[in-house]
Amino acid sequence: MRSSRILLPLMLAMLWLGGCQPDSGDNLLYGYQTPDPLVLRTPAAPVPVPDVTLAGVDGERSTTALFADRWTLLYVGYSYCPDICPTELGQLSRILPALQERMPEVPWQVVFLSVDPERDTPAHLEKYTAFFAEEFVPVTGSRRAIDRVTGAVKAGYRIEPHEAGEVTYNVDHDTSFRLIDPAGRMLALLPGPHDPAAIVDTLENFMSEVSR
Description:
The protein has helices at residues 3-19, 63-67, 84-102, 122-130, 143-152, 196-210, and strands at 47-48, 53-56, 59-62, 71-77, 108-114, 137-140, 157-159, 171-173, 177-180, 185-190. By secondary structure, the protein is an alpha+beta fold. An 8-stranded mixed β-sheet has the order 1-10-9-4-5-6-2-3, with helices on both faces. A two-stranded antiparallel sheet has the order 7-8. Helix 3 packs across helix 6.
């Protein structure tokens, strides 16, 4: 792994905190304090995810429909990632059932957005994510659709230059989880490294504040 992939999450988190373009409403939980400030960060206002069409296992899905009626942990990566993505998806496979057990009244999901549609077809992604949890929702899409989503939530990535048809290139990418509300707005960033127990505790407290 190159050092850029290690430094990228921290740099992007700093850019995200200062550079998100929120909607006109305030985020009531801006500056939400956690026992560990590295677990969760909140922007000054909710950041809407653009309504674009992505490719899923069951066909095309709009982001509006994808996030509707659920609280989502969004993770951006690619299936050919040698170590980071398997580690983070493994963490999410522990976090999701813990959230469902602790907050059964809250509909939770994990969405894995691949930025590598050349290799990550929906059928391939279905098999890949099922290895971690069959409940995970994998999606990809056109480069334009991917860039609109990742640009909005400040999830940076860089694909190594390669020839068409080549299958051995790398992708540097952000490793944070994004908390998306049922209205399709990003309310918080959960930067790595991730501690599943701390994340579950923090999100439980966070949700208790949201529901007040």
